[in-house]
Amino acid sequence: MQPEQPPPAGRLQRIRERLPLWSVQALLFLDMKNIRYLTGFTGSDGALYIGPDCRVLLVDGRYITQARAEAGGFEVHQYQSKMDGLVDVISRHGRGVIGFEAETMTVATWTALKERLPGLAFLPLRQELEALRAVKDEEEIARIREAAAIAAQAFSAVLERLRPGMTEREIAADLDYAIRRGGAQEVSFPTIVASGANSALPHAWPQDRTVRPGDMLTIDFGAVFEGYHSDETCTFVLGRADAKQERVYQVVKEAHDRAIEAIRAGVACRAIDSAARSWIEGQGFGESFTHGTGHGVGLDVHEYPRLAAQSEAVLEAGMVVTVEPGVYLPGLWGVRIEDLVVVQKDGCAVLSKIPKEFRIIEI
Ligand code: ZN
Ligand code: ZN
Asked: In angstroms, what is the span from residue 230 Cα to ligand 1's centroid?
């Protein structure tokens, strides 16, 4: 793997400055995305310990060469068992209260750490850490933009090859292959290709159902480029559309447009959800919009913040979020339209590429 630029030192600095605010003396990270964000290490297993005067990346023997190459400026500690490694490093450097990611550490690890390091206190941090990666810098945005471009190019090629009689599974496999061939590390998540009644399931798995004229076809897909994800959903009608299909599509499209229109720095995430949801409710489809309007995207495909009615978060310039309202009519079909945007001071810029106007695809 080509070593990437090391992460900007400001990230670690920002974290260190907040230790007193959170009443901790050190931080233990087990989330590999957070570890990558702070150190540059791209391996799939390890731990990171950050104290006021130490920064130690812990890895097993498989990753030692990679860790030394990627995580410049970090002490690299090799372990045979992760728990023994944690106890070694923490007992050497640790004092006082050690904060950790509440969402990542298992009860088993927490119990073992408390047993083996009885002089120390471990404090779960939640909101404090979940926003860590929310605001993206220019380089991160460029990677997400490239991921979206790779995905869109693959998608357009697959659309050209679409024929009646193809199954959802075949279309999904074709798209996954095209995304990988186009330069992505991997796909962002298992590609959703849902036709006909399957499209009424927001998280449908591709089935052996063959696509045919008159079908609604929803494809939710993304690419990973240098660790960063894209996420986009297109819904089309195949061959011919009935009036209800077009009407519901336009309702969802208008909700999508209203949400995007409302996005700018300083606006509450729940206000974006409400911009989409109140329109859909007003059109009589409120009960058919069964999920949040969007989510943050970056090193994870779903990350902070959520654009949902219960969200307490406020948009900041540099956040990258999806806008994806949907209406699902069980037994009939569903429509979801998803774009990826970067929040700016006075608005937002759309990073995903495929036009979202109502479209009938000839097959
Ligand atoms: Zn999606
Ligand atoms: Zn999404």
From this structure: 8
Rounded to the nearest angstrom, the distance between the alpha carbon of 13 and the centre of ligand 2 is 31
Mean pLDDT estimate for the chain:
95
Ligand closest to 148 (CA) is 1
Separation CA 4–CA 330 (nearest Å): 46
Report the separation in Å between the CA atom of 304 and the middle of ligand 1, taken as the mean of its atom positions.
15
Domain positions in the chain: 9-130, 138-361
pLDDT by residue (tens digit) across 205-240? 999 999 999 999 999 999 999 999 999 999 999 999
Q: How far is the CA of 233 from the centre of ligand 1 (A)?
A: 5
Report the predicted TM-score, pTM, of the whole model to 2 decimal places.
0.94
Please give the Cα distance from 316 to 305 (Å, whole number).
10
Q: Look up the CATH architecture of domain 138-361.
A: Alpha-Beta Complex (3.90)
Ligand 2 centroid from CA 119, angstroms:
43
Assess contact for 254 and 279: CB atoms under 8 A. yes
| Spatial separation of the C-alpha atoms in residues 140 and 244, rounded to whole Å | 40
Topology, domain 9-130: Creatine Amidinohydrolase; Chain A, domain 1 (3.40.350)
Residue 321 and residue 343: Cα distance in Å, rounded?
Answer: 8
Q: How far is the CA of 35 from the centre of ligand 1 (A)?
A: 25
Please list, in sequence order, all residues whose beta carbon lies within 8 angstroms of the beta carbon of residue 76, skipping any fewer than 6 positions away: 56, 57, 58, 59, 64, 67, 68
Closest ligand, as measured to the CA of 323: 2
